[in-house]
Each structure stands twice: as C-alpha cells, then as structure tokens.
Amino acid sequence: MAEEIKRGPGRPTDKRKDTILRLRIDTDTHELLSKYAKQKGVSMSEIVREAVYGIVKQANIEE
Asked: Rounded to the nearest 10 degrees, what angle do helices 44-58 and 27-40 cross at?
C-alpha cells in the first residue's frame, strides 16, 4: 500500500517549486542574502527567484 505524502504547513502557491538549484557563494554574499531575506520576511530562495525575474525583465527576455 502506497503511503500518502503529507506536506507541512506553508504558504499556498500557484507554482509548485519542484526543481532544486544548488549554487556556491562566498560567506559575505550568503550573509548579505540572509540579512536581506530576513529584513523582507521571505526565504533566501524567494529573493533569488525575484532577482532572476528582475534580470530577465531588465534584459527584455521573454518568459
């Protein structure tokens, strides 16, 4: 019998985040990212996603 996967509480979303991206950053960059995310009240992943969309928009690349 297959077990049902239970997800914990979290913010509901229309877009499922099922792809993992690992990246290497230096300690200073990590600290900046962490502080900024904490100040905004969101995850570091959300900050990175917003940054990517901002770069794409600035470069006028279609999604």
From this structure: 100
